[in-house]
Amino acid sequence: MAVNKMLKFVHVSRDMPTKRMPKLRNKDYNEVYQEFAAEKAEEQSSRCSQCGVPFCQTHCPLHNNIPDWLRLTAEGRLKEAYELSQDTNTFPEICGRICPQDRLCEGNCVIEQSGHETVTIGSVEKYITDTAWEKGWVKAITPKVERSESVGIIGAGPAGLAAADRLRKMGIQVTIYDRYDRAGGLLTYGIPGFKLEKDVVMRRNDLLSEGGVNFELNTNIGIDISFHDIRSKHDAILIGTGVYKARELSGIGSSNKGIVKALDYLTASNRSNMGDHVPEIENGELNAKGKRIVVIGGGDTAMDCVRTAIRQGAKSVKCLYRRDKKNMPGSQRETQNAEEEGVEFVWLSAPKGFVGEGEVSGVVVSKMRLGAPDSSGRQSPEEIVGADYTEDADLVIKALGFNPENLPTLWDTPELEVTRWGTIKTDFKTHSTSLPGVYAAGDIVRGASLVVWAIRDGREAADSILAFLDTQTSIAAE
Ligand SMILES: Cc1cc2nc3c(=O)[nH]c(=O)nc-3n(C[C@H](O)[C@H](O)[C@H](O)COP(=O)(O)OP(=O)(O)OC[C@H]3O[C@@H](n4cnc5c(N)ncnc54)[C@H](O)[C@@H]3O)c2cc1C
Ligand code: SF4
């Protein structure tokens, strides 16, 4: 009789891959979590209860077939687990590393709701695909037939790359344009190596090139080539440009030197770690070494900044957030990692202005308390009058979120409709924009979101583009 390998959650406890010691990891940019050993991955997968209605799958934006690939992993059938996992996810090893699983798949695991801890879904997903890379199972695209239609994709972030993969598999000629010199979008230049090592992203870019995706890097659409020219060169266009306009702070002293934008800071660090010559790192403008750092914000970007500052050798790193720990938008896991690495959180604190003449030397901080819930149900922070104080700082990093750039103006295309937040207006199902043959996906549609949603949108938009191209072909044949 076959032995049931699953439902072991009653006897086997949850175990994450080993986390490197804070004292060791806070000096380099290597990932924090180590790989599962094969036995551990099998053991942890065997904890899944194989529910009839898997809520983990429902709450994964890609609807990954999680219970089935957990079962295959528990049975040691890793190649089949990989085939199944990559069928719904273009970059499973990336999502396994950086999805906020506590809010998505793992946050809805039924065994947790029955008092046992959740299955470590993300770590198993990472393990399956990292093993597939090691074993040579991850292959470049070889389309069965080549088609003559071409699609231009603006933006080489996860949305654009996921769409490119899907279109190329169907034999479409794909060119991706990006203003940066490397593909990957925020996977390459936003997210630090301690969450996502860069060779994990680069090997994906290389594989797409090998499969026939053409990358036109250092090409800023709207500056180097007009949007109209790009449209006339291709049969369809996908816009996946992300959101990059940093939200600003006002207040006295906000134009002082030494108050910098989070993404400038993170990009400089990522570039330098990839071996680029970055003058702002060398001259100290975007370098925390030996400085008192204050980061303003409570999201994932703020967490990445504080942890980068620790690694650059800051004298002290403080994070100001206007609500409390419970109400932070950033992942709890990353906040805990930051605390372990030596970051000090100053909860219920908001910046009111800056001290310094020409150069910043401190942040004027208002102390806050939580008042009545707002329309979203979150308690609104209220200032405690008379409780202001100054937090000393040599470098202040603003991590308050991002807005979209004004694409209709930048691209001289007023007919491209946008929402009142400036994101591109698309059809909910097809991702088509107000311009025929032009689609959009990822953060430029959703606003600042997650990698897994960008992948989903990119895949869905690719399917709609294929349907559009097929319709065009049948019209031409009539
Ligand atoms: C610091 C930071 C940390 C994050 N951490 C996480 C995390 O841990 N987990 C998670 O799931 N998500 C995280 N996110 C969010 C995630 O990175 C984004 O949701 C995701 O990358 C969006 O993908 P995208 O393809 O829409 O855009 P992007 O990744 O932003 O890519 C857009 C690309 O378009 C290019 N581009 C823009 N305009 C033009 C133009 N005019 N011409 C040519 N190219 C252009 C850009 O250069 C860029 O390469 C983080 C974001 C930031 C900023
Ligand atoms: S893609 Fe993200 S949400 Fe989906 S199973 Fe993987 S880690 Fe969980």
Summarize the helices and strands and which ones pair or pack.
Elements: H1 22-25, H2 38-45, H3 55-59, H4 66-74, H5 78-88, H6 92-98, H7 110-113, H8 121-135, E1 150-154, H9 158-169, E2 173-177, H10 186-189, H11 198-210, E3 214-216, H12 227-233, E4 236-239, E5 245-246, E6 259-261, H13 262-273, H14 279-282, E7 292-296, H15 300-311, E8 316-320, H16 332-341, E9 344-346, E10 349-355, E11 362-373, E12 379-383, E13 389-392, E14 395-398, E15 402-403, H17 407-410, E16 438-440, H18 443-446, H19 451-477
Parallel strand pairs: 1-2, 1-4, 2-3, 4-16, 6-14, 7-8, 7-14, 8-9
Antiparallel strand pairs: 5-15, 10-11, 11-12, 11-13
Helix pairs in contact: 2-4, 2-8, 4-5, 4-8, 5-8, 6-8, 9-19, 13-15, 15-16
GO molecular function: 4 iron, 4 sulfur cluster binding; metal ion binding; oxidoreductase activity
Domain FAD/NAD(P)-binding: 151-458
InterPro entries: DPD_II, FAD/NAD-bd_sf, FAD/NAD-binding_dom, GltD-like, Helical_ferredxn
Structural class: alpha/beta
Classify the helix fraction into a percent range.
25-40%
Which strand order spans the largest sheet, edge to edge or round the barrel?
3-2-1-4-16
Describe the global form: globular
Q: Which residue ranges are poorly predicted, with pLDDT under 50 across at least 5 consecutive positions?
A: none
Measured by DSSP, the beta-strand proportion falls in 15-25%
Domain FAD/NAD(P)-binding: 151-458
Protein name: NADPH-dependent glutamate synthase beta chain-related oxidase
Keywords: 4Fe-4S, Iron, Iron-sulfur, Metal-binding, Oxidoreductase
GO molecular function: 4 iron, 4 sulfur cluster binding; metal ion binding; oxidoreductase activity
